[in-house]
Design a protein that fits this description.
- The structure holds 2 protein chains of 2 kinds.
- Chain A is mainly α.
- Chain A folds into 2 domains: 33 residues; 150 residues.
- Chain A has 6 helices and no strands.
- The longest helix of chain A has 32 residues.
- By secondary structure, chain B is mostly helical.
- Chain B has one domain.
- Helix content of chain B is 76%, strand content 0%.
- Chain B starts with 10 loop residues before the first helix and ends with a helix.
- The chains are: A mainly alpha, B mainly alpha.
- At the A-B interface, helix 3, helix 5 and helix 6 of A face helix 1, helix 4 and helix 5 of B.
Chain lengths: 195, 123
């Protein structure tokens, strides 16, 4: 009983310290600097920021998905509840990345935007690399949704089913591959000329 | 009497997998079509403008996304109704899926679809 109380007290103290650290990390920069300057001065900075934010979240969930794919492929022990939550979050991050990507595509295509800049100075950047990226990014959505669907639909029945485990693993690996292609090309193109 | 999906069968999963492949192949073929025909391109864009916010600024891409989404979701519903409680040969399903994804990816590489469109236009 005493050990349990000690453990609870330790956890409470740790969580409280972490909460204070988080508050300091947020409040001090806001009070002593202008972090919004990091977004730049473009009229479309918020669209780009959110597209990048969700792409970053998708990168994290997709990487976790890749690891889970390995465990599914090998037949290692997996936690279905974790897989369910993780795969749904993964698909949601993918969806939001695409939604904000659509939104930031508008200024990309505008006269005077990156597209017209590339067509004048280095046409292959748009005509090959960007046009390929915009389609490869779309591949991730049905793949992540299929993975989440199979996991959630079959639940615990997934675990002993070798074929389904391999199917989910395959879709998670493919979605990671297409994410890397889209993210890599998108980052490179943004580095050359952003909106 | 309703048909209950048998979770021991993989039909529902196979339906999801193949509909995904069809959606992506549709994306590739519609994109090729827009490169071949200006009229088709305008029709595709018009479809996107029916529902997608900002479709005017996004261009025909909005319609391509729409076609892919419709093909994916419609075939998913159909296949699920057909195959729930059943199971197709999983190796065949896997082969069809992978080949479709590979084909769609290849067709969407701009030098490929530009080249095909150019050849078909007789240019």
């Amino acid at each position: 009983m005493s050990d349990n109380q000690d453990e609870k007290t330790t956890k409470s103290v740790i969580l409280s310290i972490l909460a204070v650290m988080l508050m300091i990390a947020i409040v001090v920069p806001l009070m002593t600097s202008a972090p919004t300057q990091l977004l730049g001065e473009s009229d479309y900075r918020l669209r780009g920021a959110f597209h990048g934010l969700f792409a970053m979240i998708f990168m994290i969930t997709s990487t976790i998905g890749l690891y889970q794919a390995l465990r599914l492929w090998r037949g290692s022990a997996v936690d279905i509840a974790e897989l369910e939550i993780g795969s749904v979050v993964n698909a949601a991050a993918c969806f939001l990345t695409i939604i904000f990507g659509n939104w930031v595509y508008i200024p990309y295509r505008m006269q005077g935007g990156p597209r017209s800049h590339f067509l004048e100075t280095a046409p292959e950047i748009h005509k090959i690399f960007f046009e390929f990226k915009e389609f490869m990014a779309l591949f991730t959505l049905p793949l992540t949704v299929v993975a989440a669907y199979i996991i959630c639909f079959y639940g615990a029945k997934l675990i002993p089913n070798r074929v389904l485990r391999a199917t989910v693993a395959l879709t998670l690996v493919l979605s990671f591959f297409y994410f890397v292609v889209a993210f890599g090309l998108g980052a490179a193109i943004t580095k050359l000329k952003s909106v | 009497m309703s048909i209950k999906t048998n979770l021991e069968r993989n039909g529902a999963a196979q339906a999801a997998l193949l509909s995904c492949a069809i959606g992506l192949l549709t994306l590739a073929l519609v994109n090729l079509g827009t490169d071949i025909s200006e009229t088709f391109k305008n029709s595709v864009h018009a479809l996107g403008k029916l529902w997608m916010p900002g479709a005017q600024g996004i261009g025909p891409y909005s319609g391509k996304e729409t076609f892919a989404l419709l093909a994916w979701l419609a075939t998913w519903v159909i296949f699920h109704r057909l195959w729930r409680g059943k199971e197709l040969n999983h190796q065949t399903v896997l082969m069809v899926f992978l080949l479709s994804i590979a084909l769609a990816t290849t067709l969407l590489w701009p030098p490929v679809f530009n080249g095909i469109a150019h050849a078909l236009k007789g240019g």
